[in-house]
Structures are given as structure tokens and as C-alpha cells.
Amino acid sequence: MYSVFLDGWQFPITPPKLQVSIKGKNKTLTLVNDGEINFLKTPGLTEVDSFDAVLPTLAAYPFAAYPDGFHGPQWYLDKLENLMKSKKPAQFIVSRVSPAGKLLFSTNLTVSVEEYAIKESATDGLDVTVSIKLKQYKAFATKTVNITIKKQPVAQATPTQSTAKPAASSNTTLKVGDIVDFTGSKHYTSSTGNTSYSCKPGKATITKINAGAKHPYHLIKVAGKGSTVYGWVNASDIKGAASASTATKTTATTSTARPATSAPKAKTYTVKKGDSLWAITKKYTGNGARYKELYNANTSKIKNPNLIYTGQVLTLPW
Question: Of the candidates 49, 177, 23, 53, which has an alpha carbon nearest to the alpha carbon of residue 114?
């Protein structure tokens, strides 16, 4: 079973076929009397060749998937149009599950919408087919170098007079969209929680900032730059970030004492009609692509991550 997602929303009917192309950029030269030689170069951007997706118009077919309820073709076409106009990349995810309910490998690419075409045919009734072409997106940014020239003091300072000036702060005010150097080794599933996972340092993009939180910055790795971070991190794990006292706002907190023998209860969620693991995960974390965390926390109750039932009580890992 396949499930295809773009920018957090799911295609109602899985495209009949997908083709992903990884194009090499090697250069072949012919030498006099020595035949051909090949210069190996970094591969080009991955391309998701044009694929067709059917968008039902009047009815929610029993084989279609609507995690957030039925939407007509215009809803999906508006999403595609906004992606192109906003000039922002999106996540393209293909989730694969075996007939036995085992979660197989997934495709997860940061992409741009290169083009799409709307097709209508009398043989398809009132349904609309949209043909979409995607290309891998790699973030880039210019590098700046700050050079500080120290001047020698003109005269010796007297014991009662100081010529020293306060050192300039190296802290930087960061904003969403900035590409930063992540130096940490773990990320958290929420900005206030303690559940963490190991990850590698490297270049990453700030996607959210929760001022005043325990882990105030949400990072997503920059492809090809070494990092595997995809979650909330501490300010101290970002090179040049403002300290906790300057990057966050002060909030008053109160705590209610409880008996030492009372353990905190795990958070739960009761499945409602139309729910999916993606939709539930997006509701609590803001990122539906992390649905595997919810699935792994409930493997004793869920055999197939694409099949949950109304009334099931799920344990929330966040």
C-alpha cells in the first residue's frame, strides 16, 4: 500500500506510477591515442518525473483517502498554485506498507513544483486529473566574513580611568528561514518536552521559533550538508544563536505539588471518524511526517499504520 504526500497533505488517490530520476553529471573526454576518460562529478538534482493524480469531484470513493475530510479538486489545485507562487520548497513523501502491515522504506525529498497541468476527459466523468513534475531542492546561502581590526591605544590608561570598552556581543538574532550551523547531537519531539533522538550536526534551516520554550528553535537539515536534524533544539546548539536569556521571553510559571508516589499519566487520544496517524501527529506536533513516532508508540494496538478505528485509545509519545 502506498500513500503519497506533498507539503503535509495527502493525494486522495495514489498515482498509478511514479518515476524518480537521479541524473549524473560526469564528463567524458577523448584523448589522442589514449581513448576516452571519464571525469566523475557530483550527481545533479533528483527529479520526480511527471505523474498523474486523479482528484474526485463529486464523491469520496471508498478506495480514496481523506485524512482531513473530503475535498474537491479546487482545494488541491489551490495548494499547488500557492506552492508555486510562494517560491517555497515542500516535502514530498511516499510511504510504503506491506500487505501484512509492516512499514517499509519511505521516500522523503525536499522539492519544488516545476510545473503542473490540469487535464479533463469525458472518459473520466467529472473527475479532474492533474499532471505534476517535481525537482529536488537544495538550500543555499552566501557566506560572509567579518574582519575586526584592533587599534593600538594612543596613551596608557591611568589607574582611575579605563579606555576599555565592553566587548561586542557575538549573539545573532535569528529568524525563520535562516540557515545556521547546528552543533548539537540530539533533537527533541517538541519545544517543551524531554523526548529526544540522536542526530548529526551540520547545516540546517530554522522553520519555527517558540520564544520562551525549553528548546526554542525547530530545525530541518539542509540536504547534502551532513546534518540529520529534524526537530526542536536548544539555543546553545546553534552557532551564534542568542543565549536563552536574550532569545526567549520571561514567563511566569506555577507548579502544583503532587505526592511522591503519584506518577504522571501518559497522554492519550481517542480516534474519531476521519482520523489518520498523519492528521493526529500534525495536530500535536505540527509535522504530520513524524507519524512513525505515533505508530511506534502503539504497535500493540495498530497492525497497519494506514488503518485505525474510531474509538481506539492511542498513547501519545509527545
Answer: 49
